[in-house]
Design goal:
This protein has about 140 residues and is an alpha+beta fold. It contains four helices and six strands; from the N terminus they run H-E-H-E-E-H-E-E-E-H.
């Protein structure tokens, strides 16, 4: 695929990811009585690097809309671009798939003494449930676990 076609497909994927997440942001911020932030494509990333979607300070969101999945490489990029105060999240979707898959950190272990973070891949529905809960927690609407 040519460079322009690939970039356009990437932009489309970023817009689709924003369309998926913005309604959740709108609903939670409205409930909190706060001004709603607008998620948007990071148009400066080609100059200074960074992740694909900006608008929430705690979230470093990378979006991939491709035919061939390169999860290890994409996850490495996602983690590298996030700072210590940000949650690295990778949304990816293969061509012609309707729903997104999401790669993120998940807690694993048994009991309080054996907990550690591992990379997990979850479906769109589970991610959206987590995303709403995390937004609520960031706004003090519910306690973080």
């Amino acid at each position: 695929m040519g460079g322009t076609t690939s970039r356009n497909k990437g932009k489309r994927g970023e817009r689709m990811a924003i369309a998926l997440l913005q309604p959740v942001v709108d609903r939670v911020y409205a409930e909190a009585g706060m001004e709603v932030p607008r998620l948007q494509r990071n148009t400066l990333q080609s100059d200074g690097g960074g992740f694909d979607v900006v608008g929430l300070a705690w979230l470093a969101l990378e979006v991939k809309n491709c035919e061939v999945v390169a999860l290890d490489r994409w996850w490495e990029q996602t983690v590298r671009q996030a700072n210590d105060a940000q949650e690295p999240v990778l949304l990816f979707r293969r061509n012609r798939q309707r729903s997104w898959s999401v790669c993120m950190w998940g807690e694993c272990g048994m009991g309080a003494r054996l907990r550690f973070l591992v990379r997990v891949v979850v479906g769109e529905g589970d991610f959206l449930a987590w995303f709403e809960k995390r937004l609520r927690s960031e706004l003090g609407l519910e306690e973080r676990r």
